[in-house]
Design goal:
This protein is mainly α and about 130 residues long. About 80% of the residues lie in helices and about 0% in strands.
């Protein structure tokens, strides 16, 4: 499979997944909606394995890291923003569910930040001894 077929395959999988996900949520089949996401990921992985001629060089690896980091930052910002908003509005309006949802989002974003720091420490661990003066 060449690159153009790969991108066409990915686009078709994404469209089909979006349609199945939307229909399943509207019909009330939450488990089917979740399952469709994992099936789409599996199909994308299978398509990726069949691609010939795509080289994963350093430029693409750096670009992939930058995209992942920006995605993490945006997701954390949104979680912190909505979490704080839910807590404040829930406290002002005395809505217990909103406060609980806000604290859940805030604790989830804190867990993601902690996980990011753990992965960063594990990635930097081999380089710690290089900068020491003896």
């Amino acid at each position: 499979m060449d690159r153009s077929r790969f991108f066409l395959c990915i686009a078709l999988i994404a469209l089909a997944e979006a349609a199945v996900f939307g229909v399943a949520l509207v019909a009330g089949y939450d488990n089917l909606a979740e399952l469709s996401f994992y099936v789409a990921l599996l199909l994308m992985f299978v398509c990726r394995q069949r691609v010939k001629g795509v080289l994963w060089d350093e430029r693409l690896a750096r670009l992939d890291e930058q995209v992942a980091l920006k995605t993490l930052r945006v997701a954390l910002f949104l979680m912190l923003f909505f979490g704080a908003g839910f807590v404040v509005s829930g406290l002002l309006l005395q809505l217990e569910q909103a406060v609980n949802d806000g604290f859940f989002l805030l604790s989830l974003s804190g867990g993601i930040i902690l996980l990011y720091l753990i992965f960063w420490i594990l990635a930097m661990k081999p380089y710690w001894s290089e900068g020491e003066d003896e």
